[in-house]
Structure formats: C-alpha cells, structure tokens
Design a protein that fits this description.
about 60 residues; globular; about 25% strand; 3-stranded antiparallel β-sheet; alpha+beta; 1 helix
C-alpha cells in the first residue's frame, strides 16, 4: 500500500480546520490529505486506492 496514516497533533487542513490524521504517500513521504479522525483517513485511503485501480464497479 503506497499510503499510511499518521497522527500529527497540530496539523490543519487547507481550510485551517484541525485535521491531525494525515495521509502520507510512502513513496514520496508527502502528505496528500488529512482528516479529523483516523477512521475517515483510512476510508479516504480505500477510496484513493479504488480510484487508482478503476474505481468501484457495480455487479450487474
């Protein structure tokens, strides 16, 4: 998995809101997103991975 979640106590998102759970691209060691909760950050990683691999597909 190319992403990991880390806690950075005083991190703020682009709107200036507290978002201490950051999503880090492990290959570039770069913060690519952040969330207020660990659960939301982990969900964001799952969505990113799904998008990178063709997205969610319906079973029809």
């Amino acid at each position: 998995m190319p992403y990991k979640v880390e806690f950075k106590k005083d991190h703020r998102n682009s709107k200036g809101e507290s978002a201490p759970w950051v999503i880090v691209n492990k290959d570039r060691n770069e913060i690519v997103g952040s969330s207020e909760t660990k659960e939301t950050a982990e969900s964001s990683i799952r969505a990113r991975l799904a998008g990178e691999h063709g997205g969610f597909k319906s079973k029809s």
